[in-house]
Design goal:
The termini are far apart. α3 crosses α5, α3 packs across α6 and α4 runs antiparallel to α10. β3 and β4 form a beta hairpin. It contains 16 helices and eleven strands. Helix content is about 50%, strand content about 15%. By secondary structure, the chain is an alpha+beta fold. Strands 3, 4, 5, 6, 7, 8, 9, 10 and 11 form a nine-stranded mixed sheet that branches. This is Peroxin/Ferlin domain-containing protein. Pfam families: Pex24p. It is found in: Peroxisome membrane. It is a multi-pass membrane protein.
């Protein structure tokens, strides 16, 4: 009876070694079911779950997981040390000490202990192989392989978290800033520290980046404004410490402007606003005008407060948490040919949806000073103004398709400021009442 029960239920999938191969060679091991005749009811229930997982996994994937399992164990241990995610931090500390000693005393170590190090590495390989074989024999189920794969994935995400936050545009700006700061880097290596100590400093910073005291130190230093500015000017990347206050102040200014406009206007008409984006370009010798900017200056698209803004095709209207809604009045973005009145235009048309590549630009020197409507040899930067009008209306009125009689009230809104701006309830109520009254008057 017990034998029949063992045949009907698979208790646990285990590795059976055909041959004892070392890590790095042929690690093929057969992954098969082993029936046990003396299992209890709980073991039988666990076997049903394991058998279902095993049966639902294709044989080719199962074989690949079998071959990958020993390497996953090694990778999990290495990532645990690099991310300082173990309760025992001494292996990570030992890793830093070994790196420190190896770089500081590289030549004496290689000269006097090089042959011993080779034998020591072989000895460590044998100990590692013994550890892996023991781990495989103890935890040989498909569920364990899945768990360790998830653990490795999470630790990889933690290890690479500083890099995954960077976009391609951030990396391009970082590369450009690094090239421009090359003279400072050369002077630093030549006068203050040797290349060996430079590599040592960078390595220790990278190895201890995820350590608890390194995280606390970074949080404390980041509270100082001059540290945030130093990082910004050295990398060209805004880590959230430079433009946050600027965006908040611009949001408050815009909110105040909108509320004052609504309070001062007594007509029963919806409010219309003009969104503004500035297109910035820099002249590169031998290349011409390009949207690639220096790492420490404004981005290629900004609002009037020099906050980074999306391109016109990616610009989205903000969503209000009330029944009010923003909707576009203009079908497309238009180029302001006057550039906010700075360029005289003789014709009646002052906007253009399809301008030329050089239309509507104001030219500046290398530091964005001395504006001029004409290009010259001393002008290295330029910008032009794009506008598009939207209005704040009642969402119900907009859904009914009622026409809106709007009044043109000019205001400049940026995407970042709009997302952070929420108007007072009485202000929104007044706008809503105007929209409804305008609809009924029709």
């Amino acid at each position: 009876m017990a034998e029949n029960l063992g045949k009907d239920h698979v208790v646990r999938a285990e590795f059976l070694n055909q041959h004892q191969y070392r890590i790095g060679g042929n690690t093929s091991k057969i992954f098969q079911d082993k029936a046990k005749s003396d299992g209890s009811n709980s073991n039988i229930q666990a076997s049903d779950n394991g058998s279902a997982l095993l049966n639902s996994t294709p044989p080719m994937i199962t074989k690949a997981l079998i071959n990958l399992y020993p390497y996953l164990i090694i990778l999990d241990k290495v990532l645990t040390i690099l991310t300082w995610s173990s309760s025992d931090i001494w292996p990570s500390v030992l890793m830093c000490l070994v790196y420190l000693i190896f770089l500081l005393y590289l030549h004496p170590i290689v000269k006097y202990l090089g042959h011993i190090i080779i034998v020591t590495l072989l000895f460590g390989y044998c100990k590692l192989d013994k550890y892996i074989n023991g781990a495989v024999s103890q935890r040989a189920s498909l569920e364990d392989i899945t768990i360790i794969m998830e653990r490795v994935s999470l630790k990889f995400d933690l290890l690479l978290s500083p890099l995954t936050r960077l976009t391609l545009q951030d990396i391009e700006r970082l590369m450009l800033t690094t090239i421009l700061l090359s003279p400072i880097h050369i002077l630093l290596i030549s006068l203050l520290m040797s290349p060996q100590r430079y590599v040592l400093t960078i390595g220790i910073f990278a190895l201890t980046y995820h350590s608890p005291w390194a995280k606390v130190t970074r949080r404390l230093l980041w509270k100082f404004k001059f540290i945030r500015k130093f990082v910004f000017y050295m990398t060209g990347l805004d880590m959230g410490g430079i433009s946050t206050l600027r965006r908040a102040s611009s949001a408050l200014l815009i909110k105040k402007k909108v509320e004052e406009t609504i309070e001062n206007d007594d007509t029963d008409k919806p409010i219309k606003f003009t969104y503004v984006l500035y297109e910035n370009q820099r002249k590169w010798l031998g290349i011409g005008w390009k949207p690639n900017m220096l790492g420490y200056e404004r981005t290629s698209w900004t609002d009037e407060f020099l906050n980074e803004a999306p391109m016109p095709k990616d610009f989205q209207l903000p969503e209000e948490k009330t029944s009010m809604k923003w909707k576009w009045v203009d079908a497309n973005w238009k180029l302001d040919l006057t550039n906010d009145g700075a360029i005289p235009v003789t014709g009646a048309t002052k906007t253009n949806e399809n301008p030329g590549i050089d239309d509507g630009f104001i030219y500046y020197d290398n530091g964005w000073n001395k504006p001029s409507a004409h290009e010259s040899f001393s002008k290295y930067t330029r910008r032009r103004r794009w506008i598009r009008t939207a209005e704040l209306v009642n969402d119900d009125t907009h859904k009914e398709g009622a026409p809106s009689n709007t009044e043109d009230i000019s205001a400049v809104l940026s995407e970042e400021a709009s997302e952070d701006t929420h108007y007072e309830p009485e202000v929104l109520t007044k706008v809503r009442n105007r929209s409804v009254a305008s609809h009924h008057s029709k």
